[in-house]
Specification:
Elements: H1 19-22, E1 33-39, E2 45-51, H2 53-62, E3 66-69, E4 74-77, E5 86-93, E6 99-106
Parallel strand pairs: 1-6
Antiparallel strand pairs: 1-2, 3-4, 5-6
Length: 133
C-alpha cells in the first residue's frame, strides 16, 4: 500500500515493526489506525494523523513522528518541510489497539494551517453537560 521513503532517521527499509506490537494493532479497511498527538508537558491535544505499521516503526525507532498521508499515499515526517517538528516523548496503544497516543515535544505549529493545534479556532456549539451533585 504505502511507498517507502529513504531519508535520515528512517531506519533500514528491511526492518519491520516489532511483531509483538504489530499483533496488538487493529487496522481499518485501508490498513491504517489513528494516532492522536498530545503535547507531553501540557496535555494539549495537537492533532490526529494516520499511521500504518511502517509509519509506527519509523516513529518508534527515530524519535520523530512519521504519518501516512491518505491523500498522497506516502509517508511524511512531521517537520521535514514545515520546520514544525514533533519529537517523541512516549507512545501508547489504547485498550482496543485501534488508536495510538503519542506524547511529543512540538516545535512550532502542529497544524498545517499554521495554528497551534488542528482544533484551534474550530470549536462547535455544544450544550455543556454537568454531573449530578
Amino acid at each position: 500500500m504505502a511507498t517507502s521513503l529513504n531519508g535520515p532517521d528512517q531506519g533500514p527499509e528491511s526492518q519491520e515493526l516489532d511483531p509483538a506490537i504489530a499483533a496488538r494493532l487493529k487496522h481499518d479497511a485501508n490498513g491504517l489506525f489513528a494516532a492522536i498527538v498530545q503535547q507531553y508537558d501540557t496535555g494539549k491535544v495537537l492533532m490526529l494523523g494516520w499511521m500504518d505499521d511502517e509509519a509506527l516503526r519509523r516513529t518508534l525507532t527515530s524519535g520523530r513522528v512519521t504519518f501516512y498521508s491518505r491523500s498522497r499515499q506516502e509517508y511524511w515526517r512531521k517537520g521535514d518541510t514545515s520546520g514544525h517538528f514533533q519529537f517523541v516523548k512516549s507512545a501508547a496503544l489504547d485498550c482496543d489497539g485501534d488508536a495510538l497516543l503519542l506524547q511529543v515535544d512540538q516545535v512550532g505549529a502542529a497544524c498545517h494551517t499554521g495554528t497551534e493545534t488542528c482544533f484551534t479556532g474550530r470549536e462547535l456549539p455544544a450544550v455543556i453537560g454537568h454531573r449530578d451533585a
